[in-house]
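Checklist before submission:
- one chain only
- standard amino acids only
- sequence pasted in full

Submission:
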Amino acid sequence: MAALLSVSARSAGLTLPAAVHRDLVAYAQVLGKTTGQTAPEPSKLIVPMIERFMATDRAFAKARRDRAAQVAGGSAEKSG
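Returned file contents:
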């Protein structure tokens, strides 16, 4: 199980619905125009978008804090 929590990168193949792919391509084009650079490869946007989503999801952040408190509380009980 610890191997799954490794900080090394993982590869994941996924299939996007056509509408999501079209929107991702359009997003990349808009981003390229906005930054004055060439449009990034749409697939390169997926990880930063997911990271941003998780970083700003309040329910997820609360669940992580609650989980960390449970784990820390369990460790204190076992060591004491």
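Reviewer check: Residues 5 and 33 are 37 Å apart (CA to CA).
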